[in-house]
Q: What sequence folds into this?
């Protein structure tokens, strides 16, 4: 984005310089009038460049603020998702432990029953 702004400002300045140079070459006026005219044009161009710069700066600041806001929202959303995932993993871990304990108990009973059956 800043490359576009920079290019635009450079274009304004280059256009102003070229326009002034061509104006000097083809000016049917006296040197004093031409210099005043160039001075006025240069001031106008400088004012226009400042306005464009300030507008571009304001626009880029808005874009920056919007990006920061979106990143903060994304950060908040991601934290919530991580917390939910951690809770789910903890819950599933407990369920797995319970299932393992139950299975271990059933297996022990089955082994004991098999041992008694072979005696």
A:
């Amino acid at each position: 984005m800043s490359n576009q702004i920079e290019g635009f400002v450079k274009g304004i300045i280059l256009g102003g310089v070229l326009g002034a140079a061509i104006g000097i070459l083809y000016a049917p006026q006296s040197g004093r009038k031409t210099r005043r005219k160039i001075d006025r044009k240069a001031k106008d161009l400088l004012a226009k460049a400042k306005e464009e710069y300030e507008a571009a700066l304001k626009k880029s600041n808005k874009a920056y603020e919007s990006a920061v806001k979106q990143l903060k929202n994304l950060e908040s959303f991601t934290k919530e998702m991580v917390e939910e995932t951690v809770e789910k993993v903890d819950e599933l871990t407990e369920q797995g432990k319970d299932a393992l304990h139950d299975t271990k108990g059933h297996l022990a009973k089955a082994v004991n029953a098999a041992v008694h059956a072979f005696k």
In short: The first helix runs from residue 2 to 25. The radius of gyration is 39 Å. The chain is about 95% helix and 0% strand.
